[in-house]
Amino acid sequence: MNKKVDRLDRPSKLLQNTNLDTVYFRSFSDIPNAKEVSKLVDAEGEFRSGTAGSFDSVRTIIPSIEARYKAVDALIMESGIKQVVEFAAGRTTRGINNPQWNYIHTDYDGGALEQIEHIAKSICRGKPTSMHFVRFNAITGEGLEEVLEPIKQGKVAVVHEGLGIYCTLEQKAKIALNARTILERHGGIYITPDIRTKQDPSFHKLYPQYAGRLKEQRAKLGLDFEASKFEDREEAMGFFRKLGFDAEIIQYRELVDHIESLGALFLDKNEKGRVEEVIRQFEIWRMELR
Q: Helices marked H in 124-227 — which ranges?
């Protein structure tokens, strides 16, 4: 295994900073508790002091991250499943926002895990919740037995967002197989918006600076984002079929009614409309065992 893969199997400081960028970007949304968590971890300060590029280079990313979070939530709600295991959850507020779930928040970064557990206890003080914080590497499977321990009888939704886009095809397979292990024991669904193909809609034509940001990230992380994409839907479907899944592919437009950050970041109605149309074409995968 080469050094580039090792960087992802054992997440680096650069990937941890990418997670904090996401926390900051969600603060522009109306996702509950997103602004509070962003302030508590100084996500904006980390972004401003980092080398992620200018704010203009992320304007299109921010509403797409809001829509991504909401699309995952919508599919979980639609399923009626009350247990959720989230891989590489970072500082997401999903468990805090859904106290009715038996929610297992996992991450390989022990520091991030400890931080969000402390924040969750502070925000939810006095409120009944069922949240569990488990150190788990979604690629290597390290910690999987600890993830399984708090899952109760009944179906589970295994989810991740923003993890698979950094992974090679080999790593994507390992993540999916770890999800399959959980579903084989409990039943349920595997949800992710992280399956990308080279045919997907993108912001590159609208915003050349977005492509520049990706190029910078690729160089710093030592990852080739294009090589990690599938050629098309058919190749992706076949890939997951071989791993034991049947997939349904759903566009964000079918799940997300409102993207709050679009209004704040794109004052020109025509520009806002163009960006929104690209985002609403993005896809999320809902998979079940064959």
A: 144-148, 169-186, 208-221
